[in-house]
């Protein structure tokens, strides 16, 4: 009897340890910490030449952070694009549908009413000078010319394109980016399924081509909130709100580098709580907006980078 009873007090401890291991393994898998560690080591073995040929996000720091966008206190900014024709930025708001033009320093220049839009989530400057907006709830893409005097845009007067995924609800397309090298749009679907899609735009008949998936299985993030294309390298930046990551992909959608948007990394005093839009200008500066109305600028650090420095993760 003594032999059979002796191990009993230790069973709760072993059960607790087993439970901790199971929970830890589940958490690591859910947060993709193993993938992050793998790519962290991989990106830090890039040569100086390879880093210069890429965006190489660990070399960036937050030059401007958490600046409130004046007059948008009660709105939710989402999506961001750099317009090379005006050298300004554009974002959209979902709570009260607006197209908002910003300076590169985050000053609000004008607000344009978006009539007929339900939930605008992404905006992008196209190669021909037009702007394109995606409405997540309506699953529509609309492209239009914007004049300096426009005070409103009416969706009913625009040609729209159905993006499909009728069952997606509020988990549809959130990000949109223009890939000038391949004359295509890149669309980021938030989740269920999560992934990047390529859309030739326009097609030969003037309408969008066929929507095609672009390496969705290699993304170690829990959601996608925005996408943009670096005009210098052709590489892709994808933003994840839930994972609090900015990820660099090559033209085929393969991960190259990333940075964390948690406070203490890359010069961030405080973390970006809900990052919803990212874009780059032709000088390589990265701009970001987060809900409800905060603005960020990341610039390349001109000092010789230490690839093993954790603070640049």
UniProtKB/TrEMBL annotation:
<protein>
    <submittedName>
        <fullName>Uncharacterized protein YjiK</fullName>
    </submittedName>
</protein>
<keyword id="KW-1003">Cell membrane</keyword>
<dbReference type="Pfam" id="PF06977">
    <property type="entry name" value="SdiA-regulated"/>
</dbReference>
<dbReference type="GO" id="GO:0005886">
    <property type="term" value="C:plasma membrane"/>
</dbReference>
<keyword id="KW-0812">Transmembrane</keyword>
<feature type="transmembrane region" description="Helical">
    <location>
        <begin position="12"/>
        <end position="32"/>
    </location>
</feature>
<keyword id="KW-0472">Membrane</keyword>
<dbReference type="InterPro" id="IPR009722">
    <property type="entry name" value="YjiK/CarP"/>
</dbReference>
<keyword id="KW-1133">Transmembrane helix</keyword>
């Amino acid at each position: 009897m003594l032999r059979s009873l002796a191990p009993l007090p230790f069973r709760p401890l072993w059960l607790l340890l087993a439970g901790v291991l199971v929970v830890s393994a589940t958490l690591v898998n859910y947060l993709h910490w193993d993938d992050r560690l793998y790519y962290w080591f991989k990106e830090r073995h890039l040569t100086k030449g390879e880093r210069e040929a890429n965006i190489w996000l660990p070399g960036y720091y937050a030059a401007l952070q958490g600046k409130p966008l004046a007059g948008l206190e009660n709105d939710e900014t989402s999506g961001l694009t750099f317009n090379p024709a005006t050298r300004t930025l554009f974002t959209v708001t979902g709570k009260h549908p607006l197209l908002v033009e910003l300076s590169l320093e985050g000053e609000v220049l004008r607000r344009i009413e978006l009539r007929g839009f339900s939930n605008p989530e992404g905006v992008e400057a196209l190669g021909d000078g037009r702007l394109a907006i995606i409405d997540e709830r309506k699953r529509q893409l609309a492209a239009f010319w914007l004049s300096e005097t426009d005070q409103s845009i009416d969706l009913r007067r625009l040609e729209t394109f159905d993006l499909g995924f009728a069952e997606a609800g509020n988990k549809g397309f959130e990000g949109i980016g223009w890939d000038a090298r391949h004359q295509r749009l890149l669309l980021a679907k938030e989740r269920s399924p999560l992934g990047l899609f390529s859309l030739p735009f326009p097609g030969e008949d003037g309408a969008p081509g066929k929507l095609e998936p672009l390496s969705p299985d290699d993304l170690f993030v829990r959601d996608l909130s925005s996408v943009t294309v670096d005009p210098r390298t052709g590489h892709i930046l994808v933003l994840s709100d839930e994972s609090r990551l900015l990820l660099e992909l090559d033209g085929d959608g393969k991960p190259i580098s990333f940075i964390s948007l948690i406070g203490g990394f890359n010069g961030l005093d405080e973390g970006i709580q809900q990052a919803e839009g990212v874009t780059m200008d032709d000088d390589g500066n990265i701009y970001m907006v987060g809900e409800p109305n905060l603005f960020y600028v990341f610039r390349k650090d001109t000092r010789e980078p230490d690839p093993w420095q954790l603070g640049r993760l």
